[in-house]
Amino acid sequence: MINKNAENDIVDVLNKMIQACEPILFGEFNLVMKEKEQGLLDKLEKQDDRIGIRPVVYKEPTGQMAISTMSIIATLTDICVGKRLAVDVDKNGFITGVKWYNTNTN
Predict the structure, then answer these.
(1) For every one of its 106 residues, what pLDDT tens digit does the chain have, with 9 covering 90 and above?
(2) Predicted structure pTM score
(3) What is the DSSP letter of 83?
(4) Contact between 39 and 59 (Cβ < 8 Å)
(5) How many domains does the chain have?
(6) Phi, psi of 72 (to 5 degrees)
(7) Is residue 49 part of a domain?
(8) Contact (CB, 8 A) for 78 and 72
């Protein structure tokens, strides 16, 4: 796993990058990719415990599942760092920065 300094650096650098850019709504950033065939993402998740779609998945009105930009980022950081990276948004839905998402419910 990655060391604590690198974890802090990831958040620090990404927050600086976000603050240097024009504001963007979370929905504009978080593009959604629908599964090709209903049930494929559920099947993938059951086959590979590194795939954790549940907290960040979107259910379409048809019941079809999808992944998003943030679910890809969260999965990458979970595999590489052991934590999921999440975005902070303001009351209007604009991205204000990133932070580590606590997956512990205790």
Answers:
(1) 567 788 899 999 999 999 999 999 998 998 888 888 888 888 888 888 777 665 445 566 677 777 888 888 988 888 888 888 999 999 999 999 999 986 654 4
(2) 0.76
(3) S
(4) no
(5) 1
(6) -65, -45
(7) yes
(8) no
